[in-house]
Amino acid sequence: MELKTARLTLLIDPAKKEAFERLCARRDLTPSQVVRQLIRDYLNLHGESYVPSGAAGRTGRAARPAMASGAASPAAAKPRSRR
Q1: Cα–Cα distance between 54 and 64 in angstroms, integer?
Q2: Fewer CB within a 10 Å sphere, N or C end of the chain?
Q3: Is 66 helix (H, G, I), strand (E, B) or coil?
Q4: What's this model's pTM, rounded to 2 decimal places?
Q5: Per-residue pLDDT tens for 6-17?
Q6: Are 35 and 20 a contacting pair, CB within 8 Å?
């Protein structure tokens, strides 16, 4: 599991934020889940590799590779639990 300890702060139009949050709620996704997927897709699109922070130091398990190009978009992402 990736460690989610770094914060990214951005400023956007309040109406756009509200529409984004409504769409995420309709798809049973959190805005953070969607933004993380967008970032993974963007990294893959541009061939930027990374090792997820929680992957280092695991014993007996290989680190998950970054998603392949052309992977499902956030709109097609499987809903995850909010717990």
Answers
A1: 10
A2: C
A3: coil
A4: 0.64
A5: 999 999 999 999
A6: no
